[in-house]
Write a structure and sequence with these properties.
The chain is α+β, with helices and mostly antiparallel strands. The chain has one domain: Archease, Possible Chaperone, Chain: A, domain 1 (3-Layer(bab) Sandwich). Strand 1 and strand 2 form a beta hairpin. The chain starts with 5 loop residues before the first strand and ends with a strand. 27% of the residues are buried.
Length: 143
């Protein structure tokens, strides 16, 4: 597994996530891993199952929101813990699309430690910035 490229910033009752990457795709991947890490011990997840995710939105902020929402729904409704992400982001006319292969495993209550409940992803505090050769993503998670 690569070095974690995210951190958590204090917020009154919620958590602000900052994720980084050398590409926009890597920043999206790290933003998803940061979300998973809030809820579960990621070092206990074995990536033995693959899922394909396809999302299309009008702009990059909506794409990030939909991406994170999809990752959250995988955990909450499908009981699937994603761990490895291979994302591709492409602009197509007036749309922006993300296609990702996600590897993880089904939730096993005997092995996986559930840390905290995430209620929702929000647009509050959200930004996506490119600074030189790095991308920085920030978003607030409602706990």
């Amino acid at each position: 597994m690569r070095t974690l490229q995210f951190r958590y910033l204090d917020h009154m009752a919620d958590t602000i996530v900052e994720a980084y990457g050398e590409s926009l795709e890597e920043a999206f991947e790290n933003s998803a891993l940061a979300l998973v890490n809030i809820m579960f011990e990621v070092d206990k997840v074995v990536p033995n199952k693959s899922i394909r995710i396809e999302i299309q939105e009008n702009d990059i902020e909506n794409l990030l929101y939909s991406w994170l929402e999809k990752i959250l729904l995988l955990m909450l409704t499908d009981e699937f813990i994603p761990l490895e992400f291979d994302a591709s982001i492409n602009k197509e006319k007036s749309k922006i699309a993300l296609i990702a292969n996600v590897k993880g495993e089904n939730l096993d209550y005997r092995r996986h430690v559930y840390k905290i409940e995430v209620k929702a992803i929000t647009y509050h505090e959200m930004h996506i910035k490119q600074e030189r050769d790095n991308f920085n993503i920030r978003y607030l998670v409602d706990l």
